[in-house]
Amino acid sequence: MTCSFRRPHLPLLSVTPEDQLKLLTAGTSKVFSEKELLEKLRLGRPLRVKFGLDPTSPDIHFGHTVVFEKLRQFQELGHLAVIIIGDFTATIGDPSGRSATRPPLTREEVLVNAETYTAQAFKVIDRDRTEINFNGDWFRKMTFEDVLRLNARVTMQQMLQREDFRNRIEKGQEVRLHEIQYPIVQGWDSVEVRADVELGGTDQLFNLLVGRDLQKEEGQPQQIVMTMPLLEGLDGVKKMSKSYNNYVGVEDPPQEMFGKLMSISDELMARYYLLLLGEQLDPAQHPMDAKKSLAERLTARYHGIEEGRAARADWDTRFSKKDLAAADLPEVSLSDLPLPTNVLGLTSHLFKAVFDLEKSNGELRKQFILPGSVQINGEKLTDPAADVSLSAGDVIKLSKKHMVRVI
């Protein structure tokens, strides 16, 4: 099953190859090589820019969109995005950067995930300038003899150059033989679609280079390998990941998305501009204005212009104008609250019931109550044991990002 949205003759914009090279290499980690990319750009035809993805989950976060932003830049210059849906490779499980075997998915699970994954991706890239392929189309036709011939193209020494494989072997951890197949089949995808360029994260470098080797053996021009950096999460330290709870989800509600983006540091903002918007941060712009603009534009990208504006207006109401009475806040019924209770009990209940956040009593005391973050109608509640009296219309502030209205 192959879905194609390809435009066979995309008009290249009147941008010189040298200027294209400058734009396309901005924000990348590695390019093999810039000289070869410039030569391809000078051909004057749309390049086939490959990106393979294994939809291991239905939702993506902003860390995943870094590569899509680079694909969008290629498209705006007239090139073609070639997406490979790994309905075959996902049943193997990508071992890249992992210290243990990844649990494989069924093909049915992959296809279900692929629908929502691509729908989210098309909020960044142009559907009409995208060709979509499923690599099961060619791999499920292969005989065992074909597989043996493909394996003969790669040596075990090459596979053991992979740092993650080597580390696992040195530590006495398992490396299953099917995992060794993964770089080979990913590389063969490049042969099948005759990729001019392949994009991936820094953890994909080895696999992408295998694609170059297999294309050379097949007598094809070798693809340019372009890796993108891993985006730091909201904490500015670890890579963005749901596991670290430092992510912004593409499907996050508009106000939540805007609020998360407003929490990043000024130091991280320039990196988000470059990797998520493909732009340089204007150093003359006030940091707060720049951050609001970043949050509004990214929220608008995934929810529409009006939602982006509304999220910014709501944030201004909550924080810039301090007018919480008019803000659009989550609501909790007075009858649903565990009254009578004290400050600690109320804070714990609201974090869990309204925001689905489980916090220990020690954390609540030290990080929220004692510093004065917990407030009712602007009055700080710094005594964890103090009794609480509430009425409909009260606004309870638990932290800068978590507020509730009692109804």
Low-confidence stretches: 1-10, 97-101
Major sheet details: 7 strands, mixed
Q: Assembly state here?
A: single chain
Q: How large is the radius of gyration?
A: 25 Å
Strand content: 5-15%
Number of strands: 12
Q: Judging from the principal axes of the Cα atoms, what is the shape?
A: elongated
Structural class, from secondary structure content? Answer: alpha/beta
Strand order of the largest sheet: 1-5-4-3-6-7-2
The helix/strand series, from N terminus to C terminus, equals EHEHEHEHEHHHHHEHEHHHHEHHEEEE
**What is the averaged pLDDT score?**
86
Distance between the termini: 53 Å
**Percentage of residues assigned to helices:** 40-55%
The number of helical segments is 16
Question: What key attributes describe this structure?
Answer:
407 residues; alpha/beta; seven-stranded mixed beta sheet; five-stranded mixed beta sheet; 16 helices; disordered N terminus
Give the gist of this structure:
The protein has helices at residues 17-25, 34-41, 65-76, 107-121, 136-139, 144-151, 156-159, 163-170, 177-193, 205-217, 254-262, 266-277, 287-303, 305-320, 343-355, 361-369; strands spanning 4-5, 30-32, 48-53, 80-85, 130-134, 197-201, 224-228, 331-332, 375-376, 379-380, 395-397, 403-406. It has 16 helices and twelve strands.
Q: How would you portray this structure in words?
A:
By secondary structure, this protein is α/β, with parallel strands linked by helices. Helix content is 43%, strand content 11%. The chain is built from 16 helices and twelve strands. The chain has helices at residues 17-25, 34-41, 65-76, 107-121, 136-139, 144-151, 156-159, 163-170, 177-193, 205-217, 254-262, 266-277, 287-303, 305-320, 343-355, 361-369; strands at 4-5, 30-32, 48-53, 80-85, 130-134, 197-201, 224-228, 331-332, 375-376, 379-380, 395-397, 403-406. The strands form two sheets. A seven-stranded mixed β-sheet has the order 1-5-4-3-6-7-2, sandwiched between helices. Helix 10 links the parallel strand 6 (197-201) and strand 7. Helix 13 (287-303) packs antiparallel against helix 14 (305-320) and helix 15 (343-355) packs across helix 16. It is elongated and about 75 Å long. It starts with a strand and ends with a strand. The model is unreliable at 1-10 and 97-101 (pLDDT under 50).
